């Protein structure tokens, strides 16, 4: 017998789920991960492989997470437990939910520090600094623990406020504001880059196919990127699926979210690389790309003090709509169990993630020599545990559960009517292709 859990309610209209899931998916990974990987791994050839991974692994797992979440209407832990029991399997399957929530909290702790730097850069880019180069500027930002902690706190507070306001009034309402803003800013940046940047050079960097640079590494990197970019394996999509109205179609919705995520990743490349090439800067990825190279471009360009802040607002919005989805699964669990109110659950988990984030903030400066896992500082260790171990593990388990253990009638009930061929293809991918491919990423990343 499962005890009665508090209900979280559902979202109104089909767009709320789409915007929230797209908000979760579109994050720093799309902006500073995808474009660089595509550009340096065979351009169009990488994009093609990436699209295959999205369709064959990403979308099938997304469909599975939504089915489990929506059926139960609960947090990933209870959703896994219920669905497993209703499928006559062991309630131990709930560990997939536990691993997801752990991953979410770990990622949130460092995502917030980095997103805090994005917030800080809105102001840095608005005021030109003639005395420091952009890399000295970045150095001065990260060498100050007080500065990093201040912006980390601001970002975590924003995340807390949105999630604590509830599923409908907090997350649902905010994504309806944030996502259109993100879309508009991105389109503005791309148009700006078309007219002012080396657009053709960027197009060819991102999309000209070079199959000679495709190796087995390329496949693994595309697969890992697809997985992280769609926020799979850690319960964000499962938690959001719990609030999806029952009459919304799971399969087309998943394709919509995956397409929007991919579109944003490509547009981000078309916003960034024309500017990078126009100023003869080296293509790069991660913080070096946006905080050093892009800032240097903004410092040199006309109206840079206007365009720069717009770019960093865009980045901050992308990060915020992802961070709320990192916090939600844990908050849903604590509050539905009735241990704490929603507000207090959000407070407890964000405070915990905030404290863990202190380690990340200090790993840039005073604790840079400290290694949690050998050879990796605090930030890199958490990143490794969450993104390289827990996410692929969760994704693989979800695929195995839905492919091999979940009762067929429960699945059919949730999927509703779909074209038989699509259904058969999905079954095939989720049973065989997804678990083996994710197992491959998993194994290759650990060893
Ligand atoms: N998908 C986000 C990105 O591309 C990261 C993320 C992963 C968010 C997992 C939530 C859950 O940056």
Structure description:
This protein has 447 residues and is an all-alpha fold. It has a single domain (14-446), classed as Hydantoin permease, CATH 1.10.4160. The chain is 78% helix and 0% strand. The chain has helices at residues 14-25, 28-40, 44-72, 76-86, 95-126, 134-142, 145-164, 167-196, 199-207, 216-229, 236-241, 250-278, 286-300, 304-336, 342-363, 378-405, 408-415, 420-446. Helix 1 (14-25) crosses helix 14 (304-336) and helix 5 (95-126) packs across helix 7. The longest helix has 33 residues, at 304-336. The radius of gyration is 21 Å and the shape is globular. The structure holds phenylalanine. Residues 24-25, 27-30, 228-229, 231, 234, 236, 322, 325-326 line the site of phenylalanine (PHE).
Quick overview of this protein structure:
The chain is 78% helix and 0% strand. It has 447 residues and is mainly alpha-helical. Phenylalanine binds at residues 24-25, 27-30, 228-229, 231, 234, 236, 322, 325-326.
Number of helices: 18
Largest sheet: none
Q: And the CATH topology?
A: Hydantoin permease
Rg from C-alpha positions?
A: 21 Å
Low-confidence stretches: none
| Number of discrete domains | 1
Q: Give the strand content.
A: under 5%
Structural class: mainly alpha
Distance between the termini: 42 Å
| Portion in helices | over 70%
| Cofactors, ions and other ligands in the entry | phenylalanine
Order of helices and strands: HHHHHHHHHHHHHHHHHH
What is the number of strand segments?
0
CATH class: Mainly Alpha
Shape: globular
Please give the CATH architecture. Orthogonal Bundle
Mean pLDDT reading: 94
């Amino acid at each position: 017998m499962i005890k009665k859990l508090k209900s979280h309610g559902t979202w109104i209209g089909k767009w709320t789920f789409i915007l929230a899931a797209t908000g979760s998916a579109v994050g720093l990974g799309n902006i500073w991960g995808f474009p660089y990987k595509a550009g340096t791994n065979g351009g169009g050839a990488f994009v093609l492989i990436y699209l295959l991974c999205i369709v064959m692994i990403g979308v099938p797992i997304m469909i599975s997470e939504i089915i489990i979440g929506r059926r139960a209407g609960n947090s990933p832990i209870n959703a896994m437990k219920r669905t497993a029991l209703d499928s006559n399997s062991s309630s131990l399957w709930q560990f997939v939910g536990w691993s997801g929530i752990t991953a979410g909290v770990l990622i949130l702790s460092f995502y917030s520090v980095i997103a805090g730097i994005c917030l800080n850069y809105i102001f840095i880019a608005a005021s030109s600094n003639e005395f420091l180069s952009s890399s000295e500027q970045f150095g001065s930002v990260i060498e100050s623990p007080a500065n990093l902690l201040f912006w980390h706190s601001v970002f975590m507070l924003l995340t807390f406020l949105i999630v604590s306001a509830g599923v409908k009034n907090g997350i649902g309402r905010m994504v309806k504001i944030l996502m259109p803003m993100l879309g508009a800013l991105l389109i503005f940046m791309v148009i700006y880059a078309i007219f002012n940047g080396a657009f053709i050079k960027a197009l060819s960097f991102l999309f000209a196919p070079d199959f000679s640079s495709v190796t087995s590494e390329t496949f693994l990197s595309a697969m890992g990127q697809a997985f992280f970019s769609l926020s799979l394996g850690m319960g964000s999509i499962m938690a959001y699926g719990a609030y999806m109205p029952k009459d919304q179609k799971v399969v087309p919705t998943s394709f919509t979210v995956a397409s929007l995520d991919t579109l944003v990743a490509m547009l981000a490349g078309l916003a960034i690389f024309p500017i990078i090439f126009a100023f003869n800067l080296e293509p790069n990825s991660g913080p070096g790309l946006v905080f050093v190279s892009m800032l240097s471009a903004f410092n040199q360009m006309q109206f840079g003090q206007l365009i720069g802040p717009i770019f960093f607002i865009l980045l901050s919005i992308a990060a915020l709509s992802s961070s709320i989805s990192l916090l939600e699964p844990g908050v849903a669990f604590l509050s539905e169990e009735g241990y704490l109110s929603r507000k207090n659950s959000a407070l407890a988990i964000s405070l915990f993630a905030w404290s863990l984030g202190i380690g990340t903030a200090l790993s840039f400066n005073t604790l840079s020599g400290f290694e949690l896992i050998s050879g990796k500082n605090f930030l890199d260790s958490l990143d490794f545990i969450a993104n390289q171990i827990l996410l692929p593990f969760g994704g693989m388990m979800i695929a195995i559960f839905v492919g091999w253990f979940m009762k067929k009638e429960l699945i059919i009930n949730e999927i509703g009517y779909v074209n038989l061929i699509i259904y058969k293809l999905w079954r095939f991918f989720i049973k065989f292709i997804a678990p083996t491919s994710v197992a491959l990423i998993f194994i290759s990343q650990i060893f």
